[in-house]
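In the design runs reported in the main text, the only information available to the sequence generator was the tokenized backbone. The following block is the verbatim input for one such run; it is reproduced so that readers can re-run the procedure and compare outputs position by position.
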């Protein structure tokens, strides 16, 4: 589970910081289109990395379910359901990132539009992806709240991790709803609003890799 979480974190950072963060120029559709056209493989690599992240996410949610089911089976299952919705939304959302690649091609049907229109449509697709990502994080935020509660109550994982995961969930929810309701306010909050979430998830990842769970207490929950 910890290794899956590590892959998720690394792939997420790669896609956001080293691909989209490098190629997307905020507010400049022409420069963004030129960057993507000049580095199409890097753009595709970012999409592939995101998909690997979501594949690992499915395995990780199963690990969390098995670990936390002894605390409360229904809540552990509810966390799985929220994760399934989140993953489905985010995977579908990746289709938006293919649009700029299609628009940068030489297909005959693209001649119906002038270059500025193609650039604008590509940039709008990227902007739409940002909102779709925010939508998915609403469901992930709720999942974090549930997982945090179960971790806090478990006794075989540190309570502090449970608190951190709940803080992460609140941060994701605030960030996403701010994006929907008041984008300028969301811009003011970002990226600071997601720093606690990063700390929480990285702490959870490291603990799962290095320490794991108190098996004696976990077995007591299972037996009980």
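Verbatim output:
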């Amino acid at each position: 589970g910890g290794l899956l979480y590590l892959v998720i974190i690394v792939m997420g950072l790669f896609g956001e910081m080293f691909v989209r963060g490098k190629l997307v120029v905020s507010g400049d559709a022409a420069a963004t289109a030129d960057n993507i056209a000049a580095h199409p493989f890097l753009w595709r690599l970012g999409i592939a990395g995101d998909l690997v992240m979501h594949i690992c996410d499915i395995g990780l949610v199963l690990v969390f379910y098995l670990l936390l089911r002894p605390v409360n089976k229904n809540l552990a299952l509810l966390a799985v359901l929220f994760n399934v919705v989140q993953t489905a939304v985010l995977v579908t959302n990746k289709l938006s990132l293919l649009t700029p690649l299609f628009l940068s091609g030489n297909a005959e049907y693209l001649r119906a539009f002038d270059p500025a229109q193609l650039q604008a449509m590509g940039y709008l697709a990227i902007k739409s992806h940002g909102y779709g990502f925010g939508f998915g994080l609403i469901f992930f935020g709720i999942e974090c709240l549930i997982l945090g509660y179960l971790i806090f109550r478990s006794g075989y994982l540190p309570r502090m991790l449970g608190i951190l995961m709940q803080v992460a969930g609140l941060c994701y929810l605030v960030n996403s709803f701010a994006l929907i309701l008041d984008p300028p306010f969301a811009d003011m909050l970002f990226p600071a609003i997601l720093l606690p979430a990063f700390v929480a998830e990285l702490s959870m990842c490291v603990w799962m890799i290095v320490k794991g769970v108190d098996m004696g207490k976990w077995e007591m929950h299972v037996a009980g």
